[in-house]
Amino acid sequence: MSRLTREMFCLMEGRHVHPSTLYPGGVGTVATVQLFTDYLVRLMKYVEFMKRVVPLHDDLFDFFYEALPGYEEVGRRRVLLGCWGSFQNPDVCDFRYETMGEWGKSMYVTPGIVVDGELITTDLVDINLGIRILLGSSFYEDWEGADLFVTKDPLGNPIDARHPWNQITRPKPQKRDLAGKYTWVMSPRWLDRRTGSHLALDTGGGPLARLWVTALAGKVDIGYVKSTGKSVKIRLPRTASLPETEMKWTIPK
What is the pTM of this model? Predict the structure, then answer.
């Protein structure tokens, strides 16, 4: 089944996994009826597979919870999530910074920040303004006090010296000290203006932040995907051997 998804990727984007036909403004793929048919055939096979594999996973984890008391506590920590949004609404999005808050909230995956389970904002401008790059334990000199590249954004909001737009790279190689400086990696954070805390958000290389923010925001309703404020409902169409199916992702306890 994973081969099917690679084939779908190759049809639309060229090489897998690094796309070769994606360019600024579109794709180099020739969008023929045959191409979309080839893609759709594979997609529907995968949709049918999802109808079987999601209940299978639910069953599997129910078994883990029953057989291993305490297993549900694995990974428990503060819920700190950052989502930049995804899947633009073409009727609203013009990619201008001045209207970014508006077209961000119209995305089909809602942008937002979740702190300790509470949705703090869904405004991409607020999200952007809160981003900070801290030195942490990295081998770089501080740029605090240097001339700023950007003092205000296009909306007139002040830009912090620690915002990525003002970052200056000043390498300072030194002996590794595990109690001090030991890495070439700086520390990206998000400033929670309510508390002044610099939060290490999980922006997620996966769907957790996207689903969590979208569920809480309750903004998405495009017929087959609907956000309820505490869950995301996804309706899959009828496939070769299985009927139309509605699945629901609910925010974890």
Answer: 0.87
